[in-house]
Amino acid sequence: MTQPAQRAVAQSFLSRYINKETLKYVFTTHFWGPVSNFGIPLAAIYDLQKDPELISGPMTGALIMYSGVFMRYALAVQPKNYLLFGCHVVNEAAQVGQAFRFVNYHYLSDREPSLEETTKPAKTE
């Protein structure tokens, strides 16, 4: 590609994607909120490699419900926030994976209960 052709392609790209509307969007909470929120699903994906004994069932359940609510919210607001929706889709998938691991480890496997599990005091009401 010649120099003028390269310049024309670069200018076309910049005018199409780096424009006033894009910059206005990037500097809003509609963009940075979901970007910063991606830490939750990234941590959940990373935790899929850890020992299932460390998984908290109640917290995993709460995060599944949280992501379900915010997926709905992301599509209910105007304009629709597809970045937030995507963040919570990823989190929902990772948390459901964690929930399967939790249930499999604590209720479906043939493992021996740990000493902590056998010595827990019975709950009294």
UniProtKB/TrEMBL annotation:
UniProt-listed Pfam families: MPC
Organism: Lachancea quebecensis
GO biological process, one term: pyruvate import into mitochondria
Cellular localisation: Mitochondrion inner membrane
Bilayer-spanning residue ranges: none
GO cellular component: mitochondrial inner membrane
InterPro entries on file: MPC
Function per UniProt: Mediates the uptake of pyruvate into mitochondria.
UniProt keywords, alphabetically: Membrane, Mitochondrion, Mitochondrion inner membrane, Transmembrane, Transmembrane helix, Transport
Family indicated by similarity: Belongs to the mitochondrial pyruvate carrier (MPC) (TC 2.A.105) family.
Identification of the protein by name: Mitochondrial pyruvate carrier
Record's bilayer topology term: Multi-pass membrane protein
